[in-house]
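Sequence design from tokenized structure. All designs in this work follow the same two-part layout: the structure record, then the generated sequence. An example of the structure record is given first.
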């Protein structure tokens, strides 16, 4: 059921077409493996009884190796505690305050793309071919660096940054890594780690490099807070100041936020750019909208409050929501029942395993109608204003960030970041695909991105 290449939710989509009237399909009777195919049943899984379920130990053991025992991997009471103490750092007000920094970084990012190669003096005549995924993961690392721990990595300009390199290596899609993940899911990581497999060495090296960098940054941050060197409002400082966490818990939390918080958004930016290569008319519409509403000056400073301006743009938000729908960075999630429980009218025995294909739910014509796979940002617009349903009749049709206490805590952060990055991109460039369309395929282990990269040919726009 876990994808080893190809479209991540294809099998579930096929099952949904084959059994359109069923909402729960038993796909593996040996391991009680169930697939939920109707949004209506998800309220019990995610919102009404979320702690009757946990992430399957095998898959979680893989995640713990790379993310630590933080919010993504904790369960039960420990999860409730971490979530409660992390929420203030992701509040609405705090995200609003981060917009100017996100905008500044996004603008620097687009400028860095221009100067990447030996651009001629009259750069407007130059063409740049870049892999937008690799380039944008640097700026998202810079943004989470500042927001997450008040630290300037400047990975945009410093391509040798070890943390950026470690994350790139960790998330680059490969068949071997996918097989490794499936093996961990089936047999647990302790068993897989005993196999003579090079992947074990690679993951150990990456984990130890990320962990030691996070620990060093944590200790420096503690010192800085003690000396009261600056006004510390980043996520890590808020967690330290809450006095609720030990150093090892904080290191795990930091590893989680750094990993969960940057590759996800940079992949989404890649997919948005890809979709816009296929819809140049929509790219022009978004650009006109951003030019008109932000009125950015020659040095990239907007004349209006950036947060409120970006949040009300219908097309910019429509493109972002439609990208999140068609290319959910986390394409699948799994749960196992930790006690006898209930989902809808079904009695569920302890130990039953569930697969929710976020990808399939986002693309199924049974759920979204006959144009379900079409890129239609206008489904997210009502009376010239953004709507947040996409015309769906149930919340559970849109699962990109899930729902309930295990939903993505960084959703507001990711949306703010995407608005800044995409707005800065459309203001600065026109672009087209610089690789065969057939090579643009999703791939990855837990999160997906364009498996062969996304090469774009950029042309500077003459408007700034
Ligand atoms: C487009 C960007 C993003 C997408 C699509 C996304 C998606 C998701 C999804 C689907 C989950 C639930 C995973 C599961 O239960 O299997 C999740 C959890 C999580 N995400 Fe995100 N995420 C994004 C960005 C971010 C950002 C920017 C941050 C942090 C700054 C973040 C931090 C987290 C954390 C900590 C969790 C675990 C929450 C919990 O279990 O309480 N994510 N994300």
């Amino acid at each position: 059921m876990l994808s080893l290449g190809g479209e991540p939710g294809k099998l579930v989509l096929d099952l949904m077409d084959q059994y359109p009237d069923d909402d729960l399909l038993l796909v593996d009777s040996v391991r009680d493996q169930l697939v939920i195919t109707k949004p209506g049943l998800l309220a019990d899984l995610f919102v009404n009884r979320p702690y009757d379920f946990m992430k399957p130990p095998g898959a979680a053991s893989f995640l713990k190796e790379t993310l630590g025992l933080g919010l993504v991997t904790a369960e039960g009471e420990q999860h409730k505690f971490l979530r409660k103490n992390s929420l203030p750092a992701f509040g609405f007000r705090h995200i609003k305050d981060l917009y100017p920094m996100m905008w500044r970084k996004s603008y620097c990012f687009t400028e860095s793309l221009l100067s990447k190669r030996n651009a001629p003096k009259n750069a407007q005549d130059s063409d740049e071919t870049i892999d937008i995924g690799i380039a944008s993961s640097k700026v998202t690392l810079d943004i989470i660096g500042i927001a997450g721990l008040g630290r300037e990595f400047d990975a945009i300009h410093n391509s040798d940054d070890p943390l950026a390199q470690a994350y790139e290596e960790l998330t680059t899609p490969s068949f071997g890594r996918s097989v490794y993940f499936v093996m961990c899911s089936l047999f647990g990581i302790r068993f897989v780690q005993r196999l003579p497999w090079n992947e074990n060495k690679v993951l150990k090296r990456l984990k130890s490099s990320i962990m030691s960098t996070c620990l060093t940054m944590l200790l420096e941050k503690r010192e800085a807070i003690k000396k009261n060197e600056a006004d510390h409002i980043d996520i890590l400082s808020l967690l330290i100041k809450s006095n609720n966490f030990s150093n090892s818990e904080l290191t795990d939390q930091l590893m989680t936020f750094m990993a969960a918080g940057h590759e996800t958004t940079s992949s989404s930016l890649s997919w948005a750019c890809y979709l816009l290569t296929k819809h140049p008319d929509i790219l022009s519409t978004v650009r006109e909208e951003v030019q008109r509403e932000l009125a950015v000056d020659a040095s990239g400073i907007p004349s209006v409050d950036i947060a409120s301006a970006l949040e009300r743009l219908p097309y910019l938000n429509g493109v972002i929501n439609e990208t999140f729908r068609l290319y959910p960075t986390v394409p699948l999630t799994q749960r196992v029942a930790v006690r006898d429980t209930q989902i809808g009218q079904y009695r569920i025995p302890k130990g039953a395993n569930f697969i929710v294909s976020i990808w399939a739910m986002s693309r199924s014509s049974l759920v979204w109608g006959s144009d379900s796979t079409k890129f239609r940002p206008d489904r997210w617009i009502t009376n010239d204003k953004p709507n947040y349903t996409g015309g769906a009749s149930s919340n559970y049709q849109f699962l990109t960030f899930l729902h309930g206490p295990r939903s993505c805590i960084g959703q507001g952060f990711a949306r703010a970041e995407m608005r800044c990055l995409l707005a800065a991109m459309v203001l600065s460039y026109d672009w087209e695909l610089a690789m065969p369309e057939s090579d643009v395929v999703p791939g990855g282990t837990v999160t997906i991105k364009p498996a062969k990269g996304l090469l774009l040919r950029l042309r500077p726009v003459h408007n700034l």
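Residues 71-72, 83, 144, 256-257, 260-261, 264-265, 268, 328-330, 333, 400-402, 406, 408-410, 413-414 surround protoporphyrin IX containing FE (CB under 6 Å). We note this feature because it recurs in several other targets discussed in the main text.
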